[in-house]
UniProtKB/TrEMBL annotation:
The reaction(s) this protein catalyses: alpha-D-glucose 6-phosphate = beta-D-fructose 6-phosphate
Protein name: Glucose-6-phosphate isomerase
Entry-linked CDD domains: SIS_PGI_1, SIS_PGI_2
Compartments reported by the entry: Cytoplasm
One Gene Ontology cellular component: cytosol
Coiled coil: none
Primary residence: cytoplasm
Top EC class of this enzyme: isomerase
Pathway: Carbohydrate biosynthesis; gluconeogenesis; Carbohydrate degradation; glycolysis; D-glyceraldehyde 3-phosphate and glycerone phosphate from D-glucose: step 2/4
């Protein structure tokens, strides 16, 4: 059967992974699964040119994947069957594609540099978006210039972002990534963990007279954040004594104005956003306030512009030249046909070391689901386990398993071609390792090569099967613009995969149960009598803790 000539008109099944293209892809997988990438490279000297793509500041080389032109053709047809283009329009047009919460999903409006109207319930959101961006810029300029002072009249030196999940990971990752652009006087700090050690240790190093707190929480009800914010306020008042000083030292980022006011923050010092901004997609909103403070309004705008450039590419490029679509389809290829369980993110850039953490939430909270958008339990793999760390350190930790373990683990290798801060010799070493690892993963080392390389016996453990897929993403340089592009690239990859898996990628009911149970258990930890309202294990653990907890 010529698998590339499936007639789309015959495809009726609502779940893309149950359609005729999927059957064709499975057959194609059978044929390709025993083919080594060494053979594919040997057969096609143009493989790099064929399977690489430059979009703005980013080069993607996806030639070291277990694919042929036919694979991509079939995968692209899968995207067509899934109506990725239609869903993409619904996303950008503000339709309520988050069906379980009846919300639009419009992080793209936050960076809509074209400023064309984006309607939600018939109203254009752009004036409000632009107003908050302007408000952040004015505030940041006052803090950065030193005209916004603390209660003793000194300029702000330290800014503590108190938030968790999307209200922490995005801004924290971007702040680290853009350290070269930061204001010389201002240091950003991020406190997320409700383990008291986190905020206690942090505040021990700070001067309340020159510290500004950003309480960042979409809901302003998250237990970890509100507990840390209460502690920060108490710590501050112990030094400043007068509650009137709170106005100069606490600002809020939230959608919940009433809760912000109840906390005691002046609503003039509140930066708002909207329910159509998902927490893990919120760094482009006022949740990015710490970024604006650190790198200034112009650099924040460049970050937004980079994301907008990727949005435009995603909206307009044909699927076979569309970077987010290609990355998404490759992920589907490995998850649903090769049975890959995980996906590694390996930045070869010290400043991008938190990208894997950020992408864990972005991807796993979005697509870690087993019920589709119509309420059916799925019978195929959905979002992979995202993991990784700084690549060069990973080489000395877990790469052994990538090279010679029993699992197939596709990986994204990410590097900046030029680094302002790196020493040239060191950067060449970094780059050489980046290239060597992707080559070794793909090529491996045959028994013949092992024998002729002069290594001593035993030889079998020194043979590398290779054929491990990887993508190489090369940023011209790590700038606000390229970073914006990179983050938006992953956001859209996640979106496309969610469509192919027929998921609502924008709710997160799975994290709610644990939150509710924690609220129920908290008072039980101080109960005077034995707790027996749970299963035997949970009762046992609660009672063990009750008897030993510090008082
Ligand atoms: O972990 C669940 C979650 O709701 C995330 O989606 C969100 O980013 C995080 O909690 C923090 O929520 P909030 O910004 O409302 O404090």
């Amino acid at each position: 059967m010529d698998t590339t000539t499936v007639n789309l008109a015959n495809v009726a099944s609502p779940a893309p992974l149950h359609c005729a293209i999927s059957v064709a892809l499975r057959q194609h997988y059978q044929a390709l699964s025993s083919v080594h990438m060494r053979e594919l490279f040997a057969a096609d000297p143009q493989r790099f040119e064929r399977f690489s793509l430059q979009v703005g500041d980013i080069l993607l080389d996806y030639s070291k994947n277990r694919i042929t032109a036919e694979t991509l053709q079939l995968l692209t047809q899968l995207a067509e069957v899934a109506d990725v283009a239609g869903w993409r329009d619904r996303l950008f047009n503000g339709e309520k594609i988050n069906n379980t919460e009846d919300r639009a999903v419009l992080h793209t409006a936050l960076r809509n540099q074209s400023n064309t109207p984006v309607l939600v319930d018939g109203a254009d959101v752009m004036p409000a978006v632009n107003a908050v961006i302007a408000q952040m810029g004015v505030f940041a300029e006052r803090v950065r210039s030193g005209t916004w002072t603390g209660y003793t009249g000194k300029p702000i030196v330290d800014v503590v972002n108190v938030g968790i999940g999307g209200s922490d990971l995005g801004p924290h990752m971007v702040y680290q990534a853009l350290k070269d652009y930061r204001h010389a006087r201002l240091n950003m700090h991020y406190v997320s963990n409700v383990d008291g050690a986190h905020i206690k240790e942090k505040l021990e190093t700070l001067d309340p007279a020159t510290t500004l707190f950003i309480v960042a929480s979409k809901t302003f009800t998250t237990q970890e954040t509100m507990t840390n914010a209460d502690y920060a306020r108490e710590w501050f008042l112990q030094h400043a004594e007068d509650a009137a000083h709170i106005a100069q030292h606490f600002v809020a980022v939230s959608t919940n104005r009433d809760a912000v006011v109840a906390f005691g923050i002046d609503p003039d010092n509140m930066f708002g956003f909207w329910d159509w901004v998902g927490g893990r997609y919120s760094l482009w909103s006022a949740i990015g306030l710490s970024i604006v403070l650190a790198v200034g309004a112009d650099n924040f705008k460049a970050l937004l512009s980079g994301a907008h450039a990727m949005d435009t590419h995603f909206r307009t490029a044909p699927f076979e030249r569309n970077m987010p679509v290609i990355l998404a389809l490759l992920g589907v290829w490995y998850s649903n046909f090769f049975g890959a369980e995980s996906h590694a993110v390996l930045p070869y850039d010290h400043y991008l070391r938190s990208l894997p953490l950020y992408l864990q939430q972005a991807d796993m909270e979005s697509n870690g689901k087993s019920v589709d958008r119509d309420g059916n339990t799925v019978d195929y793999n959905t979002g992979p386990i995202i993991w990784g760390t700084s690549g060069i350190n990973g080489q000395h930790a877990f790469y052994q398993l990538l090279h010679q373990g029993t699992r197939l683990i596709p990986a994204d290798f990410i590097v900046s071609v030029t680094e302002q801060n790196s020493l040239p010799e060191q950067h060449d070493i970094l780059m050489a390792n980046f290239l060597a690892q992707t080559e070794a993963l793909m090529h491996g080392r045959t028994l013949d090569e092992t024998l002729s390389s002069g290594v001593t016996a035993p030889h079998a453990p020194k043979v590398f099967a290779g054929n491990h897929p990887s993508n190489a993403l090369l940023l011209d340089a790590l700038t606000p613009h390229s970073l914006g592009m990179l983050i938006a690239l992953y956001e859209h990859k996640i979106f496309v995969q969610g469509i192919i898996w027929n998921l609502n990628s924008y709710d997160q009911w799975g994290v709610e149960l644990g939150k509710q149970l924690a609220k129920r258990i908290l008072p039980e930890l101080t109960a005077t009598s034995t707790v027996n309202t749970h299963d035997a294990s949970t009762n046992g653990l609660i009672n063990h803790y009750r008897q030993r907890r510090p008082t």
